[in-house]
Each structure stands twice: as C-alpha cells, then as structure tokens.
Amino acid sequence: MNSQCFVTSIHKEWDIVAARQMGRELAKKIGFGTVDQARITTAISELARNIYLYASKGQIKFEVIESLEQKGIKVVAEDSGPGIEDLSQVMEDGFSTSGGLGAGLPGVRRLMDEFDIISEIGKGTIINTIKWVR
Amino acid sequence: MDTKSLNAQDYIDLVKAYVETQDEKTLYDAEQIAKSFIKNNILPEEIVNLHIQALLEIYPDLKDDIQASMKFLLEAMIMYGLAHQEYQQLREKQLEIKSEILVAARMQQMLLQSDIPKTEALDIGVISVPANQMNGDYHHFVKGKDGSIGIAIADIIGKGIPAALSMSMIKYAMDSFPENLMSTDTILASLNRVVERNVDPSMFITMFYAQYKPNTGKLYYSSAGHEPGFYYNSHSNNFEELEAKGLVLGVNPDTTYMQYELKLEKDDSIILLTDGVTECRREEQFIEREEVLEVIKHYIHLPAQEAVNQVYRHFERLQNFQLRDDFTLVILKKIV
C-alpha cells in the first residue's frame, strides 16, 4: 500500500473552505463520482467546523489509500481542544441536528465508510474516517 | 407501473418523456418512481445526480452554467439526505421502544389482572382502559372466606410507565394483607404506609376501598382522596355521591382513615370510578358530573358488565376515540 499525505491547519473559518477545496480536488483525482465528492466534502466541512467551533485550533489530514483491491481517501481531523466528555451522546442521532448545528458526527459517520474517534479530556480529539471508491 | 423494476435509467427515460409530452401520465409515473426510490433508500442527492445525467442525455450541449447550478443543488441536498437517514434511524428506534412498551403493558396486565369474584349477592361489572399503552388506574377484587367482597379502585397522579410500575407495588402489598376481616380504613392506612415508604414524594395515589358483606347487606367504604363514587337508589331512581374523606396515599405515614357504611337494598347499585370517567372532555370542554350520571342512569338497568361497557362506549365516542386519561368504571348491583 502506498500513500500520499496532505495537511491543512484549521483556525479561522476561512480555513474550512480551504480544507473543503483540498478534499474535493483530491477526491475527484482519486476517481470519486460527483455525489461522493459532495459527501466527502460535506464530511470534511463538518470535521473542520467542529475544530473551528470547539477546539479553535487543529488540522485536517488527507491521505490517498491505494491497494490492489481498493482505492480510497482517508480524512483525519486532529485537534488539541478540550476533548469530548460523553462520546456516546455526541454520536447519538438528533443530538446536534435538532438544534440546527448541522450533521454532527453521526452525519460524518454516515457520509464516510469508516469512522473512528478517540478523545481525551484536556488533550484533544482525533477522528479517523475513510471513504472507498465504489 | 411495476415499482420493483424501476431503476436509474427509468428515471432518465421518464424525464425525457415528460420533456416531450408534458402529460399527466408521466407525472403520475414520476410519483411511482419516487415511491420506489424512497423504498430503496435512495437519497435526494442521488436523485439530483440522476437528474443531471438525464439533462445531459436530453441536451448533450447543456450550458456549463446550468450544469453548475445543478451541482449546486446537489451540494445543498447532502444535508437533506443526512436528515432523511437520521429520521429513518429514529423511526426504527421508535418502533423498537414501542414494541418494548407493548411487552411491558402485557406484562402489567398479567401481573395486575384481578378477576371478578363469583358471588350470588352482587352482579359486578368492570372496565379499565388505559389512555396510552400502560394503565395508571388499578382495580382489585378480594373475596373473603365469609363471602365478603372487597373492591379497590385506585388512580396514580401521573400517567404512563412510572404510574404503572407503582401499581404493581400496591397489588403486592394488598395481596400480603392478612385476610382476617380487615376493615376498609385499616387497609387504606396500611397501604398509605407502604406508599409513603416506597414511592417518590412527587407521586400520589388515590384509592377508594369498598367492602360488601352479604350477611349484613351493608357496604363499608373508605377513601384516600379518590374521586367519589355513587350510590344508586333503585327505589327513588336517584344517585347520591358516596362522600368519604381521607388524604391521598403517600403523603403522611400517620394518616388515618374513616370507615363509612351504607345499607343496600335489592337492585341498588354502587358506581366506582376514576377521574378518567368524570373528566371526559367534549372537544376542550370538561363534561359535567351530572352528565356522567345521566349516561350511567341510561344503562343502569342492564347487567353490570354490559352497563359499564355501554358507558365506556358512550364516552369513547364522545372523545373521538382518543382517551386523555385512563378510564376505569366499576358497577356493583345488589341482586338478592
């Protein structure tokens, strides 16, 4: 498996747009269709927005995953913010959407194929996601 | 049109057909294909994408700016797609919870079931219908060795599952009482202590306890803040309220209750009920107590079970078949 890596840091709202742009272009290059490009971009947007709103500083990492069987994009959101106390709650449907806050993390999980989150109070949060080309 | 065989190409063909004919038939087909998309969990952004493909097939030299505007729509639909998936998930969860409550309700029914005792002295009818799945009303019959019949009717202030759970406690407390001719006031005093000790202070239970003794022909009764029942005097064809004072169960461990008595003649009836009966509503208006009595009077000549069924049916219809509160009605008729 070989991989390429791109990183973009998030601390202004404008950085969200830059992250979206970078992700969309990469997704297109890897060979995702229009709908999946839009889904990946929306997921990146949500992840970047979470960093901007709750951690104020962090980064989004993109990786192209290419093996013999499949091709995909890995999107990693890392921040050194306050961490999430109740992960089950933020992963619960309706917790963020009902307040109009957006798709939230359950949305990101739906938009991507793989999703994993590690969070430590006072240290920060790492979210790993992957979407495979169909 | 067979909804099973529909696919992406069908959508594109339908768009083509509609652009040409602009007839209602194709729009009807669009409705059918939308149903099949929903059934197969096709998300809105995918439909927009299909539509873009259809446009490109119909107009091979579709202007770039129109294409861009369609892509914009696709982007906007992603959030709707997510919301749609979330609603679906929540709907499934709701069904799960509903079926779980149904199981609990069945179990409650089984636990709290109290059969009407067979007795030559009284004709007894009872109906108890929960407003939701779980019943917060409770009734219980006890037949003593001396032939006496005890009837408890209770209502938990509050509805739903917490109320239903407390009811089981009341039942087991009553089952554990010694049978040796406890009087109605001591039964309420004992239950009061049980409730006071075991139930959340914000929850109250009202109860009316009546006991008929065939050897004296008298009804003995006590009330713990419960909706007063009625005595129907068959001779005068009149109703009288069964006045009884007493504090609701669970407020103060030292509460004591009074026992009242009433001589029953043949064909006299006793009506016990919960506020789900007296607080029936016609649209937003509560009905008057007199109106309840009128309805009961209309059916009181029937056998007791038939009478309670008819009264229930009357109020069920009055409330458009949607009970606002649990409804329990007991009629005892002295037949010898």
Automatic annotation (TrEMBL), chain A:
A Pfam family: HATPase_c
Residue intervals passing through the bilayer: none
Residue span, Histidine kinase/HSP90-like ATPase domain: 35-134
Official protein name in the record: Anti-sigma regulatory factor
Automatic annotation (TrEMBL), chain B:
PROSITE patterns: PPM_2
UniProt-listed InterPro entries: Bact_Sigma-Reg (IPR052016), KaiA/RbsU_helical_domain_sf (IPR017944), PPM-type-like_dom_sf (IPR036457), PPM-type_phosphatase-like_dom (IPR001932), PSer_Pase_RsbU_N (IPR014787)
Keywords noted in UniProt: Hydrolase
Domain PPM-type phosphatase per the UniProt entry, residue ranges: 123-334
Pfam families the UniProt entry points to: RsbU_N, SpoIIE
Gene3D superfamilies with a match to the protein in the record: KaiA/RbsU domain, PPM-type phosphatase domain
SUPFAM superfamilies (UniProt xref): KaiA/RbsU domain, PP2C-like
SMART domains in alphabetical order: PP2C_SIG (SM00331)
Descriptive protein name: PP2C family protein-serine/threonine phosphatase
Organism annotation: Ornithinibacillus xuwenensis
